[in-house]
Every structure is written in C-alpha cells, then in structure tokens.
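Researcher: Let's do a round of design. I'm pasting the structure tokens now; please hold your answer until I've finished.
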C-alpha cells in the first residue's frame, strides 16, 4: 500500500501545499498532480460528481507523488467508505459540529477493532492484489481533515481537536463568517481573525495541523509564519479564471474579450 507521506509530514509539524479540484476534470487533476502539489482534494460537496467520476480523477493522479484526498458531501460513513475504497488516502469532511460526530468520522476511516469501516477496498487494494497489506496498514494511513465552518465547531474546538485520529483542522472562512452573521465578501473580520488565532493555538497544543485557503503567492510566506501547515493554494477553477483574467486585462478586453 502506498504510504501517505503527507500525513507523516503533517504529524511531524512540516508544511504542505495542495489544491482543491472543483471542475471534475481528470485532465486537470493529472496536470496539477504533475505540477508538484503535495496533495489534491477532489470536491464532491458542492458539485455533481458521482463516485465513478471521482474514481476516474483518482486514476488520473496515479503515477504522481500527489496524495489523493476526497472532500465528501457530509460525515455520513457511506460517503467516507466509498471515497477510501476507490483509492482516496484521506477525506475532508464539512460542517462538523461536535466531538461525538468527529469520533464517528474517524471510526469510518478505520477497520475494526479501531473503527467501523467495512472491508471492501477494491481499487484501493489494487483489485485485491494488496488485500493483506491494505488491511494491515490502512488504519494509520488515512488523513482525516475537518472543516471548521460552524459556530458549534468553534464552541467545541478543543474537544474536536482532542479526538484521536484527527489530523487537520481546516478553516472554512466563508461558511464560518456566515454562521456568525458576517459577510464573507468583506473578509477579513476581527471576529474571524480571533477564531484563526485560537485554532492555531489549539492545533499547536494538540499536535493537529491547521489549514487555510490562499488565493495569491504572496500569502504563502505570511501563513507559513503564522503556523499553518496545510496550505490550500486556490482551486483549479480559480487558477484557470485568474490566468484568463490576467490575459484579458493585458489585452484590454476585461471580461468581454473581443466579442462584437
């Protein structure tokens, strides 16, 4: 079974950088995997991808060093199991609210006796060729990332971060702002900055990595200095859009291009 070297780096306190894939394109996944990102997260919460399409994107990432992760639609263990069985080496789980829910999430990524995951990793085990090794190593090889984006998650942050098996707390600032009655378009907010600092402190105290999204290269050094080790450098669609806007701006066409 392939070792999850990103999880090992994060547990050692070393920084990593990745990108979220929202376009559902195996070609984009393959391109960005070859580009050198440490990990890539396939989005399934906010788009229409089904498991078969996710599987094709995972196949496209084969032969690269990038660690494949799936952002599942919810903490439902069925979604988590499918993501891992088709080859994901971790999950990103949205809208967590309590330590009890997080205990269930971690359990869904582990086979008994450490968890409740059902055994059937077809593609993940190279179609049963690696059954024995997969069973022996999978429990300690899955990266569990939780999105801190609800008021309840903030209220229960210390308890959530203390659940064994939690690897990353990722700050979902847009939904976090909405849950506190703040307009995310107007970020930064002092209230959000306080939550960011508190999450970093909790992560340091409990040896849990903390992640945040970035939109420009000059943000990287500042976030690293703050202590973030799970850096999300944008999304496939924003990378494409920003490149398109840059060319259009240089041409002078704005969003309209040369139509007409």
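Researcher: That's everything. Go ahead.
Model: Designed sequence:
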């Amino acid at each position: 079974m392939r070792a999850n070297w990103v999880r090992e780096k994060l547990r050692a306190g070393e920084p990593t950088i990745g990108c979220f894939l929202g376009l559902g394109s195996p070609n984009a996944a393959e391109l960005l995997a070859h580009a050198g990102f440490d990990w890539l997260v396939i989005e399934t919460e906010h788009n229409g991808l089904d498991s078969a399409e996710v599987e094709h994107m995972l196949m496209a990432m084969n032969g690269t060093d990038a660690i494949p992760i799936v952002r599942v639609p919810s903490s439902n263990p069925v979604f988590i199991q499918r993501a891992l069985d088709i080859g994901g080496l971790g999950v990103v789980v949205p809208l967590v609210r309590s330590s009890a829910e997080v205990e269930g999430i971690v359990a869904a990524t582990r086979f008994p006796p450490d968890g409740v995951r059902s055994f059937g990793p077809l593609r993940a085990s190279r179609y049963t060729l690696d059954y024995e090794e997969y069973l022996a190593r999978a429990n300690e090889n899955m990266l569990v990332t939780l999105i801190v984006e609800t008021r309840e998650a903030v209220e229960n942050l210390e308890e959530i971060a203390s659940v064994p098996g939690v690897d990353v707390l990722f700050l979902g600032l847009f939904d976090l702002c909405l849950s506190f009655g703040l307009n995310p378009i107007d970020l930064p907010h002092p209230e959000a900055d306080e939550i960011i600092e508190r999450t970093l402190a909790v992560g340091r105290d409990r040896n849990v990595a903390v992640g945040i999204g970035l939109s420009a290269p000059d943000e990287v050094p500042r976030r690293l200095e703050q202590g973030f080790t799970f850096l999300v450098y944008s999304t496939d669609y924003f990378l494409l859009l920003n490149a398109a806007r840059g060319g259009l701006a240089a041409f002078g066409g704005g969003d309209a291009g040369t139509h007409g």
